[in-house]
Structure prediction request, 149 residues.
Amino acid sequence: MLLFMAVVGIGWLTFKGKYQPTRIKPTPTGSLNQRINGSLPVKTTNDARGNRVEAVEIVGEVKKWDPESGIMEYLADKVVSSVLIDPVEAVIFVRSFVDSSKQLIVRDRSSMRWQTAFCQGDQVAFRLDGDRVVLAVNNGYRVCGDKSE
Prediction:
């Protein structure tokens, strides 16, 4: 018994702090279940249609925004990935220039806010239900956006 305890103690001292759980980083392709192993926070939220969904939350920095396709490239955990954001599926909030404590909603692709919803360098948080973005919140300054709203 003493020998067993000694072996366990030596093993613990040897590997203490060296073992880190494996975490698969989000990538631009593949299903969400293949990309994430459950280490991201899961939150209950409503999608644009009012349905309650369980979604994982990802926080990152905008690297590129293409309003024509709705594809945003972002940096999270030192990996650049991309997501498709559709205002029909997702609730989208952007920060107001006039009052930084106020969030403005982006309802459709035809609005001026859609064109400048995300700017390079903005901090963004979004929630994914499967591969579908159901909530996107731009917490950045939107330097490329309309300064009058």
